Structures are given as C-alpha cells and as structure tokens.
Amino acid sequence: DADVTQTPRNRITKTGKRIMLECSQTKGHDRMYWYRQDPGLGLRLIYYSFDVKDINKGEISDGYSVSRQAQAKFSLSLESAIPNQTALYFCATSDGVSYNEQFFGPGTRLTVL
Amino acid sequence: AQKVTQAQTEISVVEKEDVTLDCVYETRDTTYYLFWYKQPPSGELVFLIRRNSFDEQNEISGRYSWNFQKSTSSFNFTITASQVVDSAVYFCALRVVNSGYALNFGKGTSLLVTP
C-alpha cells in the first residue's frame, strides 16, 4: 500500500462549488504539505503543518483552507472554486530531519469549469 | 530570498546521448539542502537525490551523476547514455528552513529521449 494517499485522484467541478481534497499517510511523519503544480511553473506551496495544532500559510494560500484532523490526515479545501484553481495538487510528508526528503502522494488532478 | 532556476524548459536528445540538466539556486542561508525529483509521464514525483550545503562531493548512481558547486550555486544533473525511460520532467528543489522545511521548486526541465 502507498505511504501517502490522496483522494480523489481526479475531480471535475464547477465554479463556485466547495471542494475538499484529502491526504492520508502511514509514514508516521509530523509534517505535511500541500503543493500545487501548474504547467511550466513547477510546484508551489499552499499550506504546511508541523502537527495537528500548527498550520501555516505557504506562498499561494489565498482561496484555500486546510484542516489537520489527525497526525495522519491533512485536507485541502477550496471554499468556492474558480477556473484558475485548475491544477495538479500534491500532498507531501516529511519527518523532522531537515536533511530528509519529502514523500509525495500520487496527486489529484482538479478541473474547475 | 530563496529561488531555484532551471533555465532549460525542454530538452530533446536521442537515446544514448549524454544530457545535463542545469540547476542554479539562490539563498542567504549557510545551511541548506538541495534535491532532485523526477516526474515521469504517469505524474508521480520520484525522489532522486539530496545534498546538504556542507557536502560538495559529487555523486554517481548508475547512469546518473550530480555536480554540486557552491562557488557557482549550481547543482547540475547529468544522465549518461540516456534511455527512453528517462523521459520525464525533472525538478530541482531547495529546502526552505523558514517555511517548515518545505521545498522551493524550480519550474522543471522536460526531457524527451527519442529512440
């Protein structure tokens, strides 16, 4: 089984709808992240969380919110989706060792019509 | 400011050619970490290598090698004798200490290896 899972894998929705993307991990990591990938722009950080009580905004947090329900779960919400939020969204985890890599989920492809 | 520049947007080579992917980074921190990830057409992100700022040793792993030079703030990636399976987008990333150790990614280099 994958260490970092994301649901759904694909989603098409309409402008103005509320959408939640979910991320779960079995790696036991404290730190979790949400990134957004747009063609030609690389990955950009939306939110990150050190633990359940510690959530921080990233570079492009406007229009998004997150919830850390448990150590293993980190959800990303779009309260009112708009077309320019169409992108590939990745969840990632890491332990507290700065040297170690992040582990990424498979991604969620979101299309907002 | 933390920044990663991958100036090569797309590279196309013929199988068995060697290819180097460039990565230039900017940071004021004396301690930092650099990473390379591969994103094949299937979309997942695959970790390739990490390097910290105190370790300038180059590394070789099979056909892959990495050249880290602090003097030029570069962390370049070379694939020797490229294969079709190397076709992917490759990302260089810098670990940002003041953002919870999140990764600051370059825009990626799309590598196409043709038979």
How would you characterize this protein structure?
- The complex is a heterodimer of chains A (113) and B (115).
- By secondary structure, chain A is mostly beta strands.
- Chain A has strands at residues 4-7, 10-13, 19-25, 31-38, 42-51, 54-57, 65-70, 73-78, 87-94, 103-104, 108-112.
- In chain A, strands 2, 4, 5, 6, 9, 10 and 11 form a seven-stranded mixed beta sheet that branches. Chain A has a four-stranded antiparallel beta sheet with strand order 1-3-8-7, with no helix packed on it.
- In chain A, strand 5 and strand 6 (54-57) form a beta hairpin.
- Chain A is globular and about 40 Å long.
- Chain B is mainly β and 115 residues long.
- In chain B, 0% of the residues lie in helices and 54% in strands.
- Chain B has strands at residues 3-5, 10-14, 19-21, 24-26, 33-39, 46-52, 59-61, 64-69, 74-79, 88-96, 102-105, 109-114.
- In chain B, strand 8 (64-69) and strand 9 (74-79) form a beta hairpin.
- The relative contact order of chain B is 0.33.
- The mean pLDDT of chain B is 92.
- At the A-B interface, strand 4, strand 5, strand 9 and strand 10 of A face strand 5, strand 6 and strand 11 of B.
User: Low-confidence segments of chain B, ≥5 residues, pLDDT <50?
Assistant: none
Multimeric state: heterodimer
Residue ranges of chain A: pLDDT <50 for 5 or more in a row? none
Mean pLDDT of chain B: 92
Order of helices and strands of chain A: EEEEEEEEEEE
Q: Note the main sheet of chain A.
A: 7 strands, mixed
Give the tags:
heterodimer; A: about 110 residues; 7-stranded mixed beta sheet; about 0% helix; B: about 120 residues; mainly beta; 6-stranded mixed beta sheet; 4-stranded antiparallel beta sheet; 12 strands; about 55% strand
